[in-house]
Amino acid sequence: IFIYVFFFFNSKSFPFFLFYESKHRCEYVCRVKANAGALTNFEVLDLLNSRGASKDTTRVIASETVSRSEYKVYDYLMETAASTQTRDSVTKFSDKCKGFKLAKAEILNIINLRPSSDVELTPILEKPDEREIDIEGILALVQELLPPLPTVEAHKENEQEETEDGEQPNMETSV
Amino acid sequence: MFCLSEMEDTVRVPPDLLNLPLEVAIKKVLQKLLLNKVLSIGLCVSIYDIKSAEGGFVLPGDGPATYKVRFIIVVFRPFVGEVIAARFKESDSNGLRLTLGFFEDIYVPAPLIPRPNRCEPDPYNRNQMRWVWIFEEQEYIIDDSCQINFRVENISYPPVPTEQAEDAKPFAPMVITGTIDDDGLGPVSWWEGCSERNNEDDDT
Q1: Gene3D superfamilies of this UniProt entry (chain A) (predicted)?
Q2: The whole model's pTM is what?
């Protein structure tokens, strides 16, 4: 069961609304530039962090600047490679990729996904067999410049701590 | 999967917000208007910046001040061919449904699930069907145990229905169709340790 409300505005510059339970559709006609630049997941996460998304664990105080739906994006991004990346590593990687004849979209995808093996990298590339792409080279560059994924890091840290203290600290399991 | 989009529109700032700095007030109005809404260019995720605001006229008989605003928003719009990490949400006889948390209308229809496969009633969940991939006599179940990578096949914006039955699913204004039928796609646990196996083959 859902409730929907119609709003009509007389002036033609107002959008035409249709409200539904969750997602809504908004017919916007005044668009200047549909694509003003692609963003990596890291850049979006950085933006949310700059608004204070990471600082307030109760999420009440920061709700002035970060809305609930933005927190959902933040939660998603924190589980991806973006959460361990730095601006420096992403810029460096993107520069060095120029030698590999990759499309911009592919470089973006690699940064977002951080593939660590051949089989993880190939679905990102378009027609890799026809293009003679240096898969090993790209993977080596990923390994060198992009920080490892968050769960891998947690595992490694815990392993080291275990050998040092002999105790198992609380491990955050990703669900 | 995110990009910036520059837009221009007339924004009415209601009188109760006029004590705030202009940029904050306009941002609040824009957030209410656009945040988490699907536009023709994708899902608006955040208001990035306000480039310019001019006007501020109060039209006769109208309380709010009207501004002509140029602003930039962050839009979620994956490109076709992009590989995205998602989580399992539910499955039925038509296929899988995946979620990103902030976006939940990702469907993998049955033809895009690797074959041979079979669909059976889920023993853990009476209402659901479960998909199982059969490869080299090994069975690989698709469930919520780990992250699922899929590749975007298509993004569609279905037209808003004028009528809807009472028990129909809520209308999804933006639907992503994905595939997991390729090397490296599907649950990540399927491919873990694959590179080690490849290295062994190379050595022998």
Answers
A1: 1.20.1250.40
A2: 0.80
